[in-house]
């Protein structure tokens, strides 16, 4: 009797696992578990022979047994939703535990070993350690600091500096006699985790020093225009302008606006300090729409007492307690508590360079669309600030990196011969290497009444094949999809029904499932959606018999 009960349960498990429904929604459905794998622990008293019968009935293969714990690792179809498989195994009553073979990750933030890092509280405030644990940038993406130059031999800057140019003196020596540019440069891109000095916002940043002031500290519009154009030609992805003026007599800044528009249209993100006027007066060039205008805030998000503000200012960054490189020596640093927007802007410039590397297909992929994507990421992930003194809030490096790594896939499906309601029906998207190979990740979502779906994948950037299916259909491939922010959209797919058991081929096993459920109200086998498993469903299987998914 015991053996008969076991065989009956085995049959039930086999049918349940074969009919894994694509139900449930994965909020961040990257590759959360090894495809097709479940870790099982049996209830006390389940004999080895019974374990083998259960495994065979479920259609699984044994991968390994625990060496120091009593578990088995089972392998199913890599296309199966293993959460559903595990849940159905647990309902059988034979298992003490059953879980997908979840991936585990280090939970630690990335904390650099720079000795002054503990004195840089602004970095944790914007979520930098959490962002760095995910992404630290790409040194092929360039930040141009259009300023007073930089101390070129500074030990915490030199490895990150490109050659640059001095437009104030018209030579190729952008060394900084003033100090402002050196300080700004250190905030954005000082060498990080080198057991020296300070950490920067972009640990893998690359800096192009563009000097547009004379050694006496005088600057002119023509040099700024040249500096902006030079940065574009040299391949900059983000330009920092911690310079400007609240005065604009006779609209003289319009010539700079023209240069900025050209840079923006070339795909360069432009970041500008909003000014230190303690009012809402326009400050140029930050006022111009192509610029991300940056206010200064304190560590708690409140506005710095000197910062320009207003609806025209886009975001804020914490510059009320900043530690950075100085020009005093090749290894000198200082703290600044003035809350100036000059030192807020490079936080955003560094953020832009880090994000650009995530949205682009390499450094040569520079376009207005890419720059716009970066700007959207910065602005839409900003944290609200007290008093809403800027349009979007204080920058959040962690949230922006996470959003850039989370790629939505949106589309619409139609199932051949399906006459039922699509609303609430589930859909699964499988991510694979281009040209084929085992699944790398799966994501499940829910269709709405217009047959639309949206799922997302985390930390899979580049080009991949996607395969889409609904419950009871074969996979339909989308080749060479670009998986980067703002995502894949506009998919319009017709799906072939008949794959009841989810093995991506319509064959005898599917036919048997339909016959077994004939006459029942079984949504997982009701291929045409009319509420009952009948001849129409059988005909769909027979019509598509032998067809294999893509």
In short:
With 550 residues, this protein is α/β, with parallel strands linked by helices.
Tally of strands: 21
As a percent range, the share of strand residues is: 15-25%
Which value, in Å, is the CA radius of gyration?
A: 29 Å
Number of helices: 13
CATH architecture call of the largest domain:
3-Layer(aba) Sandwich
Residues in helix, % = 25-40%
CATH class of the largest domain: Alpha Beta
Strand order of the largest sheet: 6-7-5-8-9-10-11-14
Coarse morphology: elongated
Helix- and strand-based class?
A: alpha/beta
Looking at CATH, which topology of the largest domain would you report? Rossmann fold
How many domains? 3
Catalogue the unreliable spans.
1-12, 15-31
How does the major sheet shape up?
8 strands, parallel
Features:
single chain; 550 residues; alpha/beta; Alpha-Beta Plaits; Rossmann fold; Immunoglobulin-like; 3 domains; eight-stranded parallel sheet; four-stranded antiparallel sheet; 13 helices; elongated; disordered N terminus
